[in-house]
Structures are given as C-alpha cells and as structure tokens.
Amino acid sequence: MEGVTEELEQDEFVGLSKMHFDVSEEQSLILEQVGRACQEIRPIEEKCYLERRMNDRVKPIFAKAHVLGLPISRRYGDGQGADMVTYALAIERIGREGTGVRTFFSVHIALGQLTVQMWGNEGQRQAVLGPATKGERLLAFGLTEPSAGSDPSSLTTSFEEKEGRFQLSGQKTWISNGSIADTVLVFAYPKGKREGMCAFLVDKGSPGYSTKFIENKLGLPTADTSTIYLDKVEVPKENLLGPKGKGLSVAYSGLMNGRLSVAAGCVGVIQDCLDEAVRYAGVRVQHGKKIGRHQLVQRHIGIISTNLDAARWLVLRAAFLKQKFEDDPANVELRDAADLAITKAKYFAANASFDSANRAVQVFGANGYSFEARPARHLADTRVTSIYEGANEILEQKIALGSLGKGFEAYS
Ligand SMILES: Cc1cc2nc3c(=O)[nH]c(=O)nc-3n(C[C@H](O)[C@H](O)[C@H](O)COP(=O)(O)OP(=O)(O)OC[C@H]3O[C@@H](n4cnc5c(N)ncnc54)[C@H](O)[C@@H]3O)c2cc1C
After folding, report:
1. How many C-beta neighbours within 10 Å does residue 209 have?
2. pLDDT of residue 108
C-alpha cells in the first residue's frame, strides 16, 4: 500500500476470534450440487408458473441431486448429515428459484423430517426418514385449521383412543404439500379437552382421509397448498410422535426449523431480485443513459443490496446458533437464543424480500408488471412469508418479549 514503509507480520497480531466466514470445500461441493439441480428446475418452474400449475419436477430433480435429506443423519436413507449453516446456505440457493419451490423444502425437510428426527423413536425415524430423504415419502405439517392460525392452542381437531388405536377427526387447512404428502404431522387434542395436545404421523391412504387443493392463491401457483379432512381416521398407536401431551412442543420445535428455512429462502429471493435489477439497469436506456446511472434507480439497488447483507447475516447467525443447540440439546438457554435469533431472521428476511421484490419491479417499470419477469413472481410469492410460520405481528411480539422479559407477554 502506498505510504506503508514496513509490512507488519501476521504473527504480531493475536488471533482471539475463532469465528470465520468462509464456505468450506465440502460446503462448496454441496452447493454446486444444489446449484445444478436449481439450474435444471428453473425453466420448468417458469413454464409451470406461467401456466399456473403445480411443478411436480421438484421432487425427482432434487432427489437425484441428493438434496432431500440434506440435514438428516446419514443413518437414514439418503440423509447427508449437513449442519444447519450448510442447510441454510442450500435453502438460500433454492430460494432464488422462487418461494414456491423453496416452500416444498421447508415443509418436507424442516417442518417434516427434522421434526421426526428430533421427536421420533428409532422405528419412526427408520420408517419415515429412510424413504423421505429419497423423495419416496413426502411430508406435510398440519397445524393450521379454519379457526386456529396464529393461536394453535385453539385447534379443534381431536382424537379418541380406541382398541389400541387412535381415531382422529377434524380439518387442517392451508397445508403446504397437503395433497401430495404421503404422511402428515397432525396435531390434535384428546376429544372434549383443550389440553394434552398430541402429534401424530397420519398416512395418506387411511380411510376417512381426504384432501382438496386450494385454488386462486395470490402467489405460489406452482406449489401445493391444500385442506385436509380427517373423518374418524384410524391411526396406529406407534404413530404417536413424541410423548403424549407434548404436541405443542413438537409443533413449536418444528416451527423453529421452518422459520429458519423460510428466512434462508427469502435471502435467495433478495439475491435474485438484486441480480435481476442490476442486469436490467445495465441494459435499459432512458433519458439518453442506462437507467443504472440514474441516482434514484441506484437507490433501489443500494437498498436491495443492503437488505441482502442484513438478511443473510441474520440467517447465518441464526443457523449457527441453531446448530449449537442441536449439538447441546439439553441447553435451554441455547434453545431460547436460537429461537430468538431465528425469529428475528425470519421477520427481517420476509419483509426485506417483499421490499426487494417490490423495488426490483420498480426498476423494471412496466416490464416488471408481468409474471414473465422474475421480480413480479417474487413480489406475488414473497407476500406469504410474512404470514405463514408466524405472522409479522406474532413475531414482533415474540422479539419484543426477548428484550422486555417475562411478565410482558402480550397473550398467553
Ligand atoms: C400459502 C400458505 C401455506 C401455508 N402452509 C402451512 C402449512 O404447511 N402448515 C400449517 O399448519 N399452516 C400453514 N399455513 C398457515 C399459516 O401458518 C397461517 O396462515 C398463519 O399461522 C397465520 O394464521 P391465520 O392465517 O389463521 O391468521 P390469523 O391468526 O387469523 O391472524 C390474522 C391477523 O391477525 C393478527 N393476529 C393474530 N393474533 C394476534 C395477536 N395476538 N396479536 C396481534 N396480532 C394478531 C395476525 O398477525 C394476522 O395479521 C400456510 C398459509 C399459507 C397462506
């Protein structure tokens, strides 16, 4: 450097920090694999989006790339044993292909498989995770009901114990992968009670089980969102997931992984919006120059770029803390720290992705007002990310409670 007369030696500094921000060689290999599958899915996803029909190629393409069991133990099927940071990086990459594609993974892997991995007994893990990691058994997560959304404790789906089996009745709605799932995690109270919630693994083929695809959504036309009807569905005793009465804890632990996954996907959306806005601003000419040279267009790009860094680092920190908790699962302080970090990451990344998509559409002008433009699709699709897996208002209160502390709960 000019003006520097003597170089300082590396060993004259004390390396106190063990933190590093490099992507390892192993991670790069996984991300390359994910990237290749993403390239393959892109034209198919675009075609399906414009025809407004479900993309059924996601499962086979990503199964072939060994991505469907990424954070699952190598003991099961095609589990790759990836840590949560690697998982988050992979989901970020997938998020660039659209929130519809990414939602499939959040549900099948984060809400589904990771919940079974955490709460299931060995028999359940073998039975579910073996085929799920290979895409031979798709999973869904059935918590929401017509009258129970932000407040899952108010759900009305119930179960009765009958001759060594459970019989479930009720309705779950707005369930991602609901029609295509082979197994759904269903949450229900004992009949006539409002406590003692349990979680069950319910199989598609069971008599009394039916589904209906939800049409006319604002976004995610390529993803399956369905209502599931349970009419006295018989569930074998061994399909109880986690201890009896711990259903709400099972649900909340699933939501923690689900929120991390949503947040990581939103980072991918922001990246794609930035790439698209930069590309377009570099070719579109108005008032005699490329629009990227107009300062107010630069402002949009500057804000999207800042959204990207802020969201990405919140997600990586949250994933890092979540992994620390996975390595030390009895540590309640770590669990709470990870939960709060994930909540902040999901809250920020969801809003930042919508803001970024909106700005990218603005940079495109009229050419962004068509689903043929990627930013338009992101704008329609990311709207859901501040509703599902904890609506903004619920997360704001949870984050505030992290600072205010006990005694300031907005609701019980
Ligand atoms: C495309 C899509 C996919 C989905 N996938 C799944 C899935 O796979 N599995 C599943 O179980 N669910 C799924 N959901 C449902 C989703 O999790 C719920 O929509 C979410 O929990 C919010 O519930 P709600 O829609 O009933 O809204 P409500 O709970 O009725 O809330 C309505 C509004 O009131 C606000 N509000 C509610 N309570 C409070 C409060 N105490 N303080 C302040 N404001 C409050 C909310 O923030 C929101 O703005 C999905 C939803 C969509 C749209």
Report:
1. 20
2. 98
